[in-house]
Amino acid sequence: MATKMQRNANGEGSLRLRSNGTYEYRLSYYDVYGTRKAKSFYGQSDVVCYEKAQIFLESLEKEKLGIDVSATIPDIVKNKCKQDFEMNYVGEQGYSRNLHTISIIEKSTLGQIPIVEVSAPLIDMFLRTLTNYSNSIISKVYRHIRLAFREAYNKGIIEKNIFEMANVRCPKSSKKTKKVIGLTRDEQKRFVDYLEHYKAPRGRNVYIAQLLISLYSGMRMGEVNALKAENIDFEHGVIHVRSTISRGIDYRAFIKDGTKTSAGIRDIPIMDNLKPILEKAIKEAPENEYGLLFYDDEHDKVITTAQVNAFFKRSCIKCSIPMRGQHSLRHTFATRCIEANIPAVVLKNWLGHTDIHVTLDTYADVFSSMHNESITKLDNYINAIA
Known about the structure:
The chain is α+β, with helices and mostly antiparallel strands. The chain has helices at 46-64, 73-86, 92-106, 120-128, 135-154, 162-165, 185-196, 208-217, 221-225, 275-283, 305-319, 328-339, 344-351, 356-362, 364-369, 371-385; strands spanning 6-7, 13-17, 23-30, 36-43, 232-233, 238-241, 243-247, 253-257, 266-269. β1 and β2 form a beta hairpin. Residues 1-11 have low confidence and may be disordered.
């Protein structure tokens, strides 16, 4: 038989011993709306009951202060990313990429429970599941989790930042890093010849000009698809790269003022073989509200990199060229520049790299292949002086 309820000494609630030998601590409180309510806590001892009640009251106080104690890791980082987007710290493209990364956490057990209940072993177990992703994706997910704990700690949602305390390490991908390789000279000849003789079926979009522009300028395909006539300066012999086609929220393609990086805003020389391609593109440019040289008339929308890439893959098959992705055309341009002894610092500017080390690291194999040729040139130069 249950004993009679006893009033707790501090007046916060009542305690009783139940017939099954456990304790019940009944507490009266006011919720966030000022309504008086009661709640019971059960345990094997009065101490356990009091501890449960204390945890509840602390959570209630945080809730009254506007702190969401039930917030998950995705909830917290989504809110932070949305604030950054609304305050123009990141653009729509960056915001979209962040949401995509956060979705990986959302699908996991880690993303389903409140951050206050997350333990270091659970974080470790989740990170171990990421090794099948690329190192780039893994590092982004890792940064978002770290950001969530920092935000939760600063806002008082959690009392301890276990992510920092446990010194959680970022895992490495089990995948081999894929190197984008440019076309060989022979492959480039076959590819160009195929494009020059290609006859498109009626009603199908043709992306020949875009592919050739990328091949002869090193421009990213998003930059090529965003070209306008005003960007082509034949008088000074340069292309003004000022915008790109980006993927935004809900995979919406849009014209982004500016490029992938700040260094991407640049001028690229118009080579002799590129000039007639640009002239033809300007002459045949379809009418569209954006003034773009390339536009999908049939669907009344801007052309995406994915559309061009699909045509590129079909072309490679016809030319018996290994599938490498359309970005290989940019690498082909860089390879030809290195073979022509264009200085790395000049190539860096043409490609729109943020740092010379990006250029040197990306094309290390190409630079290394020029080793023997460079020795011969040095020998000839020194011998000429002697």
